[in-house]
Amino acid sequence: MEFDEVPVETYMTTEVDTVGPDAWVTDVVDRLKGGSPYGGLPVVDEADRLLGFVGAIDLLEVYGAKSVAEVMTRELVVARPEMTVKDAARVIFRTGHQFLPVVDDAGTLLGIFSNGDAVRSQIERTTPSKVQSTREMLERTHGVSIGVSERAVDVASLIPTQREVYGDELEGRKYELQNGLAEPLIVVSYGHETLLVDGHHRALAAQRLGIDRMPAHVLTVSPDEITELGLRKMARLGGLDSLADVDVNDYVQHPLIEKTEPSG
Q: Which SS3 state, helix, strand or coil, does residue 258 take?
């Protein structure tokens, strides 16, 4: 199946907290205080048919005993399970919504497709192609067959192959890690060493967040077969032995970026 044909139901979240229309607004407030990934709750009837959505904005200036049905938003943009991920992501982007409820022909709530699910779908699309291209490059360069596996690796033991990362992107990777949206790293296991090929921003962000281990696609290269691995030589020539050797380029401190002085 082409990725453009992958349906929303493949990536939507199916375990969704909901509320009934007869619930009191005070109950919703208490539940939202506990945290909601969507900033509110879908409103469904006894048959799980979607009636509306109640979020924090619907509760502003609501006083007294009122039911959810009195304050909920009734006009919603929804997706069908057969809608493609690509089209759903386009709707999310163009409407400014953070998510789309997914319903069937009867209006039954099947799940939620969020912008986070859209990001996750892209990760699952791009990472395998990156791994394959790295594998093919190494096999072509050194004329050997290279195995690939998936496992967690120690962040502290990674040997970088990139001298510089960017501060703004580093902050973005922190957010992804904290919200479970980061791609796995791509590394090369070379004897007792682990060379970081793809994911320098993610690795440094993990280190700053105190994350000791990260999932990775591991390409295994034997020193017996390749005595002079190009990636290892590149790291050695660049003086890169650990993540501490990677420089962080902060655009705000760039000599061509000016900061205005506060007035008054």
A: coil
CA distances (Å), 195 to each of 112, 169, 229, in order?
38, 21, 10
Question: How far is residue 230's CA from residue 238's CA, in Å, rounded to a whole number?
Answer: 12
Q: Which two tokens stand for residue 249?
A: 């380029």
Phi-psi region of 5 (alpha: psi -120 to 50; beta: other; left: phi over 0): alpha
CA 199 from centroid of its chain's CA atoms: 13
Identify the architecture of domain 144-253 in CATH.
Answer: Alpha-Beta Complex (3.90)
CB 221 within 8 A of CB 144: yes
- Residue 86 region by backbone torsions, left for phi larger than 0, else alpha for psi between -120 and 50, else beta: alpha
**How far is C-alpha 257 from the geometric centre of its chain's CA atoms?**
30
Task: For residue range 140-188, list pLDDT tens digits in order.
Answer: 888 888 999 999 999 999 999 999 988 878 887 888 888 777 889 999 9
What is the assigned CATH class of domain 3-117? alpha beta
Q: What pTM did the predictor assign?
A: 0.58
The confidence band for 18, taking pLDDT boundaries of 50, 70 and 90, is: very high
| Per-domain residue ranges of the chain | 3-117, 144-253
CA–CA separation, 217 and 130 (whole Å): 10
Antiparallel, parallel or unpaired: β 99-103 and 109-114: antiparallel
| Distance between CA atoms of residues 52 and 175, nearest Å | 30
Question: What pLDDT does residue 125 have?
Answer: 66
